[in-house]
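Technical note accompanying the year-one report. For the benefit of new consortium partners, we illustrate the data format agreed upon in the data management plan: each record pairs a sequence with a structure-token string. No post-processing was applied to the example shown here.
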Amino acid sequence: MQERDTGARRRTVRGALTVAGIMLVAGCTPQPVVGPDDWALEPVPFQSSFTGSGAHAEPAGHPIDLAYGMHVLSADGEGGFWTASAGSWLHVGAGGETLARFDTEPDDPLTTVSAMAPLSATELVVLRGDRAHVMPMISVVDMTTMTTRDLPGDDVGDDGDFDFGDFEFGDVAVHDGDAIVVRYQPRPPAEYLDYEVLRIDLDSGARSLLHSEPIELDDAPGARPGVPPIGIDVDDAGRVYLATPSARIVLAADGTELRREPQVANRPLVAVAPDGTALWWGGAPERTAAQSVIVGGSAQARAAVEDRRDCPATAPRSDGLRLADAAGQHPLPFLCGANAAAWTGGSWIVATGGEGDGVLVRLTPPVGR
């Protein structure tokens, strides 16, 4: 177990926030009305700084809703969410309150987290390591005590000369106490990778293979120099949803392939509601009759969301959004090129933008959907 001093980090920012933030200013402009057929896009405000530490920390200053782009996002198991980017962490509760905001040191295990998913209301399963400084590994983090438990890894070479062990992990979801993980494996001398979907017991570390197939190194050139990204999520029934550069795939809990739809995506993502309703990012945006309304937020945050609402062809990341449910596929002409997304508390939280125009957006489906 690894432990860290939480007093100076939990709910505390040392000095001024190191990224730009725009304070929310109440105004008299009438708010748009969300109709029964409209998707609601609501910028999520949060506190960027606190006074005091630990249980005695108090919010300082005004909340902000525009800062840096978050790239790792997870539900928290209680209707709120955790998000992180480059060692900067934020926890927002189900009621929209900021529960924690802290930065980690460069050598802290939480600084290199690349994906995470909730195991319980207090624990996250995280993928961390970058191969250059820390070997890839899977860990369970208690976010109340800030203790980390690392799961056993797969040693290089224990299954032949071309066994690269845990070469790299891609994404993680959790179902019934098991981690469902994307792992990459090089296959020399050919210039391609296999990606594997593993079910990992979070108590024993025992692994079983659910799915495997090749992925070309030239897939998703916009994501280079990293490996082609693959997103994963699960629903309450245990079905596994895979967003790859070339396909949207749904597997049964035992790994049997149920559906596959082709796509061409640079940064594919998937975020699934408990009933299997899924948001997929990938492929060119499509114009449809679906309507969205931006609700609340500062003028700057609203402008940043507006820039991505109609998915202009000049957008730096043009992967389009679609919803898939029991009735079929439904393209949605907004929030293209998301960084990360997760279902929590009856809606999706979507992280968009980069430094200076990053917004966390609460995306709520129409009343009748």
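Partners are asked to follow this layout when depositing records. The mean pLDDT is 84.
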